[in-house]
Amino acid sequence: MTFLKEPSYLGESKQTAIRRLNSLWRKLEANPNLQELYQNFIHEYLDMEQVFDVSEPIVAYYVPHHGVIRPDSKSTPLRTAFDASCATLIGESLNSILSNGGVIQDELFAILLRFRKNRIGFISDMKKNVSDDIHR
Q: Model's pTM, two decimal places?
């Protein structure tokens, strides 16, 4: 991801993230099942080193997040949504300073034609295929 402006331009985001986190904790305390799922999510992200504990204050953009319950899903009953569109105190968001890039995948029609071309087709789930280095 390339930035249109320096990340330091965003300004203060921690207060908003903490306010949203406190709201999330109240919801989790009211629902022990959801709380357990969310704790598992946090531990999983810590194990994968996608997040880390901030013991000292650092200048960073703190991304608010919340859980989306998907009771029909056996593999991921809780999906976590990160809100990079949440505005900082100056009214900007992470999404507003990131370049959206271009379309990198083929048109759907071309993909479907390729599946008809051969006898065997493969699909895969690119779950958690995120580069650690970009988000630190």
A: 0.66
Gyration radius of the chain's alpha carbons: 19
What is the block-wise mean pLDDT of the chain (136 residues), using blocks of 10 residues? 85 91 93 90 90 80 89 83 92 90 81 82 65 51
89/117 Cα distance (integer angstroms): 53
Residue among 27, 30, 32, 29 nearest 68 (CA): 27
Q: Is 33 a domain residue? A: yes
d(CA 14, CA 82): 14
Domain containing 22 equals 2-116
In sequence order, which residues have a C-beta less than 8 Å from that of residue 54 and are 6 or more positions away?
A: 60
